[in-house]
Each structure stands twice: as structure tokens, then as C-alpha cells.
Design goal:
Elements: E1 2-5, H1 6-14, E2 26-28, E3 37-40, H2 49-53, H3 60-67, H4 70-84, E4 89-91, H5 102-118, E5 121-125, H6 140-143, H7 158-163, E6 168-171, E7 177-180, H8 185-192, H9 196-200, H10 214-221, H11 231-234, H12 237-240, H13 253-265, E8 283-284, E9 301-302, H14 305-318, H15 327-338, E10 346-348, E11 351-360, E12 366-374, E13 380-388, E14 391-395, E15 407-413, E16 422-430, E17 437-442, E18 450-454, E19 460-467, E20 472-481, E21 484-491, H16 504-517, E22 533-539, E23 545-553, E24 558-567, E25 579-583
Parallel strand pairs: 3-4, 3-5, 5-6, 16-24
Antiparallel strand pairs: 1-2, 1-4, 6-7, 8-14, 9-12, 10-11, 11-12, 11-15, 12-13, 13-14, 16-18, 17-19, 19-20, 20-21, 22-23, 22-25, 23-24
Length: 594
């Protein structure tokens, strides 16, 4: 690995014109035998490998431009802190990787977790924290775009940078120390939902008995973001102890490859226990599309083979089966649980080969598989499958199969990535007459009046509407779930109480999280072809208006969506829950609801 020579960097900064250009500021070292500090930060205007090595030889104007960047100041401040702490070497991802070489970049990404783990100390620079104390409470007014916490906690790569090093020290934007990982463990657990034992003892992740489940680990990354889609997967390799070649441009296939690599080294069935919320189609791969599918999986636990039979007994009792009458089947289940087949998986050309207890109806193509892992309530997790040709695809609709004894069976589970599918929504806004305008969209920009939701992109978009004079605003969430359009309205409860109205982007992020985490009502799963128009309406707090959204299928490959405001007739004395109505097909000529 390339390491910055702390003394050389600081000497050059103190005498930039008189510094000997032949002196190397970057040198190669072995991370296992060298004592070094390492930086974790949010990228801004950074300094590259070429710039840090060629700074002395630059023309004065270009050199001054580099030295004025925020990224350069981070390098200097990091080196000053490292020197103060007694370290001669420093690693910073922006300038210690020669990104011109794809081989070096791939080596760095595959080694990065180890580099952070082997560092004697990690400096975390929180560029958006100005106070001299660590922000221990969620504050949307300051950190609205990152769920109320410093932005560093919302990024994908910083997850491993928090967990891997033993010694971590946090600094505010003035490079004042505001705490260490050791001292802030309880606060960090609240922010990240990472158990304190993992924050204190990283080696737990390599323990066969104490390591959290795959689903649990994935849930830590569910709310995090990366600039490139592939980094959603690459940033998690170290946590699972796997390596992959870097293929930037492969998009969401990277996360599929990550899961296959995990499967090759693990027999943890919780990798299949991801959350169904936000899924685009009714059937698909047993593998998740993205880490966000593991939202809500914080409490998923593995069940050891030795305890699986007892869990199965309890599961069968809940289904009303009498164990005394089926002792032979119970004994058969015990032998199957003890079989090495339960822990042996194979990735084949027709799918992932697994050995699981299943419940099925004779003559039906559907079955329910029981996984050796439990949910937050202590119940075994089941997933539904449908047989399609050579293998079983995951069915994303709940299947009612009960009162059947689980039988172990060899299954081939589909793990192919489906071709991208999309659905278009055409927006019609009729809110201007009451002073409301669309002020933005989240998480992607909507150009014009067409929203495209897709399997490999966004399948939830939030539209923000506001009346600045009345200090009233609301969000409309539009999504596509299991082949159906759905909508929901979220009101901003607080703007009238705020002395300074928070940016709409802050409310957009909050509304997006609410809508994603909200349970999608079963009634919304009805086919919109059979229900011509569906309307949702919600009273806006402290106002004389209620917001409404309606949609219907145009029959031309897209769905018409009308967002509207109406004045209350006087019956809405208090805010009321969202209501659902149906009506005749929409007349979109005047872009209003009647």
C-alpha cells in the first residue's frame, strides 16, 4: 500500500518553494508490519495521487489551486494529527491510490477493509459538525439530508471504516476531537444499529458462533448510499470476508455477485430472508436486488442446526399439528437436520441448490420453505416459492399453506437477475389555484411530467408540494409494488412552528423514509385494471385544505396520476387519516378532481 510520509508532507508544506522535488512523499509499505494512521471522511474537492506526488513541480498558480482545496487541507490536518500522535505514516484514499491503474484500484478496494483493520488509529473527519461535542441526538434541522445525523453516517464506504479499526477518533470541521469509538459506543449503536459488541470487537464478524446473521449485517447498509451503484456491493466485501474483481459498469449485477460469493463461504440462510417491501414484480430471484431490501432485518438471527429441530417443533405446534401422532415424521426431520446437506449449498447453472424443509399442497406449483433463522418475534422465517420450469422462483405474495408437515427436499432456487422492467406515470398537477406548487422530487429529478419507475432503478419517488405563504406542504409518494401502482400522502406537521422553514429537501428525505418503511396496505394490491380510479386524500394540518391524489390506467402503457388540492367543506375539524376511494375513469382535461 502507498503511505504518506508524514514528516515529508509537513516539511514540504512549510517550505513549498525550497522543498527538494526528489524527496518522495509517498512510499510503499506492508500494512501488517507498518504502524500508520488512516483517514475516514466524506469526499469533496479532493487531491489525487498525481497531484500529491507532483505538487512541487507544478507551476505556482496550479499549485496554489491544489493547496486551497478542502481535500488538501484534510491531508495537512491529518498528517499534523498523526505526527502529534507519534505516527510516521498516513493513508488517505483520495491520494494514496493511483486510480489510473485498474489493477491497483481493484487491489485497493479488495484490501481496504484489511487496511482499516490493521491501522493503529483511524481519524474520522465530520465536515458538517461545527460544535465541539459529538451530536448524540438526531437533528433534522442540521442534518436533514442524512436522516438527522452527520452525513458521514449515511455513506456506504464509511460503514466498514467505522467497524474495522480498533481505535477510532472523531473530529469536527475544525479538527477538534469530539470523542472516540470506545467512548461513544452507545451513541454509535443508536445511530447505526450496529451492536456494541461489533463496535468494540471487530473480530466477532469472523467468529462462527457469535457473528451476526448475514441479513443483520446487510441491514446496517440498508439506508446508506454510494455515488456509484456498484459500490453498494464493493463496500460490503470486507464485512463478509469475500473478494471480487471490480467491474464498474455492471450496475446492480455487482450486488448479485456479492451474494453469490457470500453463499460460497457461508451456509447462513438469512441471506434469503430479505424484506419484500419495495419489490417491483410478483416473482423473482431468491437473491435481493440491493442492500436496501434488508431494511428491517436488524433482529434476524441464525438458528444452529442443533436447535433447528426444536424450532420446527414449535412451528408445527403453532400450525396445530400433533407431534405425538407423527413421531416417525419427527424422527425423519431430526435426521435431515443432522444431515450435512443442510449446510451444503451449491451454485449451479439452474440455481442455488439447497436442502430445506418445505410445506406444499399436492398438485400445486407453490410451496413454503422454512429457513433456519428467526425474526424479531422468535418465529422461524418462511419464504414462498413457485416452480417455474427447472427451478423455483421466489413468490412475493403470501401463500396460505397450513396444517401440513414440513418435508425436507432438495431445491434449486432461481438466482438469475431479471431483465429490467419499468412502468411510466404521467403527472397532472392542479394545485396552482390554491397557491401550491411542486417544489421538487426525491430521490431523483423528474423532468417534465413523466415518472419512470423500474426494477433496477427507483421504484419509489416522492413529489413535494408547498404553499410558502401559508407555510403548508405535503409529499406524495408514488411507487410500483408487486406489479401494482400505489400512492400515499405524507404531511409536514411542523413548518408552522418553525421560525425558519427547513429546506424542502430535508422534508423530502424524511417523507421518503416514512413511505419506504410504511407497510403497503393489502387493499392497494388490487389490480388497477379492475378498479378504474383510486383516490387517496389527507387533510393538511392547521389548514382549510385537503390534498388528494388519484390514478388510473390509461391503457397506453402508463398510468395517469392527478395531484389536487381542495378546500374543506367544514367537516375536517381535526386532521384525519388517509382515506381510499374509487370512482369512474379520470377526466384529465382540466387536471383537477371533482
Amino acid at each position: 500500500m502507498w503511505l504518506l510520509d508524514v514528516e515529508a508532507i509537513l516539511d514540504r508544506e512549510n517550505d513549498i518553494r525550497g522543498f527538494d522535488a526528489e524527496i518522495e512523499v509517498l512510499k510503499r509499505h506492508n500494512d501488517k508490519s507498518t504502524s500508520y494512521a488512516i483517514l475516514s471522511h466524506r469526499w469533496g474537492t479532493e487531491v489525487t495521487y498525481d497531484e500529491i506526488t507532483g505538487l512541487t513541480a507544478m507551476k505556482p498558480r496550479k499549485r496554489d489551486n491544489v493547496r486551497e482545496r478542502d481535500g488538501y487541507q484534510k491531508i495537512i490536518k491529518s498528517c499534523e494529527q498523526a505526527k502529534q500522535d507519534g505516527y510516521k505514516w498516513m493513508w488517505i484514499d483520495t491520494c494514496c491510490i493511483d486510480k489510473r491503474s485498474s489493477a491497483e484500484l481493484s487491489e485497493a478496494i479488495n484490501s481496504m477493509y484489511r487496511w482499516y483493520r490493521n491501522a493503529q488509529k483511524c481519524y474520522v473527519y465530520l465536515n458538517d459538525v461545527v460544535e465541539s461535542i459529538f451530536p448524540a441526538e438526531q437533528d433534522f434541522s442540521r442534518f436533514g439530508k442524512s436522516n438527522g445525523w452527520p452525513e458521514w453516517f449515511s455513506r456506504g464506504w464509511t460503514l466498514q471504516e467505522l467497524i474495522a479499526p480498533t481505535e477510532v477518533e472523531f473530529f469536527n470541521n475544525s479538527w477538534v476531537s469530539i470523542g472516540t469509538k470506545r467512548d461513544l459506543t452507545s451513541s454509535l449503536e443508536v445511530i447505526t444499529r450496529i451492536p456494541d459488541i461489533v463496535l468494540k470487537y471487530e473480530q466477532v464478524l469472523r467468529s462462527t458462533s457469535r457473528c451476526p446473521s448475514v441479513a443483520h449485517i446487510m441491514s446496517w447498509a440498508a439506508h446508506r448510499k454510494t455515488s456509484r451503484m456498484e459500490d453498494r456491493a464493493y463496500s460490503l466485501m470486507g464485512l463478509f470476508g469475500v473478494n471480487m474483481p471490480m467491474l464498474y459498469g455492471e450496475g446492480s449485477k455487482a450486488f448479485q455477485r456479492l451474494q453469490r460469493e457470500i453463499i460460497r463461504t457461508s451456509s447462513d440462510y438469512s441471506i434469503f430472508a430479505w424484506n419484500l417491501k419495495g419489490q417491483f414484480l410478483e416473482h423473482g430471484s431468491v437473491l435481493a436486488d440491493d442492500a436496501s431490501c434488508f431494511r428491517g432485518c436488524t433482529d434476524v438471527e441464525k438458528v444452529a442446526p442443533s436447535g433447528f429441530i426444536k424450532e420446527l417443533e414449535q412451528y408445527m405446534r403453532q400450525d396445530g399439528l400433533f407431534l405425538s401422532k407423527d413421531a416417525s415424521k419427527l424422527g425423519s426431520s431430526q435426521s435431515n437436520v443432522d444431515s450435512p446437506q443442510l449446510s451444503r449449498w451449491d451454485v449451479t447453472n439452474v440455481g442455488i441448490q439447497v436442502w430445506l424443509p418445505i410445506i406444499s399442497h399436492r398438485g400445486s406449483s407453490y410451496l413454503k420453505a422454512v429457513l433456519p433463522c428467526r425474526d424479531r418475534y422468535g418465529n422461524l422465517i418462511t419464504i414462498d416459492f413457485e416452480f417455474r420450469g427447472l427451478n423455483f422462483v421466489r413468490s412475493l405474495r403470501a401463500i396460505a399453506i397450513r396444517n401440513m408437515w414440513p418435508q425436507f427436499k432438495l431445491l434449486y432456487l432461481d438466482c438469475s437477475q431479471d431483465a429490467e422492467e419499468s412502468h411510466r406515470l404521467r403527472l397532472h398537477d392542479g394545485l396552482a389555484s390554491y397557491g401550491f406548487t411542486r417544489c421538487g422530487t426525491f430521490p431523483c429529478e423528474v423532468v417534465g411530467n413523466t415518472v419512470t419507475l423500474s426494477t433496477h432503478g427507483n421504484n419509489l419517488v416522492v413529489l413535494l408540494y408547498a404553499n410558502d405563504d401559508a407555510r403548508s406542504r405535503f409529499a406524495i409518494g408514488l411507487g410500483y409494488h408487486l406489479g401494482r401502482v400505489w400512492a400515499r400522502i405524507v404531511c409536514d406537521e411542523y413548518p408552522a412552528k418553525q421560525e425558519v422553514w427547513s429546506p424542502w429537501e430535508d422534508f423530502a428525505q424524511q417523507a421518503y423514509d416514512i413511505l419506504w418503511d410504511a407497510l403497503i396496505e393489502e387493499s392497494w394490491h388490487s389490480n388497477f385494471h379492475s378498479t378504474p380510479v383510486v383516490i387517496k386524500d389527507t387533510h393538511l394540518p392547521r389548514s382549510i385544505w385537503h390534498a388528494r391524489v388519484a390514478y388510473d390506467d390509461s391503457g397506453s402503457g402508463y398510468t395517469n396520476v392527478i395531484a389536487d388540492i381542495q378546500q374543506c367543506s367544514g367537516c375536517c375539524a381535526t386532521p384525519r387519516e388517509s382515506a381510499r376511494q374509487t370512482m369512474a375513469p379520470l377526466d384529465i382535461t382540466n387536471r383537477r378532481l371533482t
